[in-house]
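The material for today's practical consists of a large collection of protein records. Read left to right, the backbone structure tokens trace the chain's path through space. An example says more than a description, so a record of this kind follows:
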Amino acid sequence: MLRPILVLALLALIILYFRQSPADSSPIINKDTRLKTAHNQQQQQKQPPPKYGRTVAVGDLHSDLAQTLAVLRLANVVDADSNWSGGYDTLVQTGDIVDRGPDTIAIYKLFDKLRQQAKEAGGKIVNVYGNHEVMNLGGDLRYVTEEDYDSFGGRQKRREAWDVKTGWLGQQIYNNFNITHVQNGHTVFSHGDMEPEWARPIWSRAHATQEGGMEETCKRVDAVKKALGVNRLISGHTPQYRTGKILSICNGGYMVIDVGISKYYGGHLAVLEIIENDDGTQSVYALYPGGKRLV
């Protein structure tokens, strides 16, 4: 009699097991799911970041905060709350943030905030000296507006802020701005034009104005590219406000990205975008509010 009783008891246990409610069995399934999810997350975290993100560049901003935010959003590196959204991207700004408008403080503080946020996200902010930064640091204030003075609390406080040794803004510019910048070994950014004599990279417009004609201009451009071992030279400084478009000459070897972003130059929006290709080449685009096109 004992054997049939044991068999019946075993059958009862099996029936009881399969009658468990979904709620009873779900913790086992959820635990497995959580373990798999955690494993997948660990695997994703082990994946290295991309070698390069995009490079996006914008030209002269001239104290116009609204247009600055508009062009950075066009570049897709700033979100609706004016925080960094560019991930691993590099943003290059080719100088002349200051003068002609009232928003000097706001724009420099914006870039200071974005610089830290980009670094934390794996991206980068690059600021290049413009001639107007140099002028203000040197006391040449001919293009400063009254609204700009007022935003600092008067002329004396503005002078104090721009002091390179003790001023908050002078120190920010001195510590974070470059005269030129070479991006990923293939593109040189400067405010003015890089010439073969290495003179006036903040002031020159020799290439932008095709000084000596197009043939001579491209010879100069090619000489600089060869000396530096790069593919292209990018400048600001010479506003293309009549067209509102990025100027590209010498088979894409030289470009001007100052399109007159500030409303004081027409309020045109344009971004230069450089994409790194797997074969080591680059695809270069101009981004406009109406679309994107190869340069």
Q: What stands out?
A: The two ends are 93 Å apart (CA to CA). The chain has two domains: 2-46, 55-294. Residues 55-294 form a domain with the Purple Acid Phosphatase; chain A, domain 2 fold (CATH 3.60.21.10). The chain is about 40% helix and 15% strand.
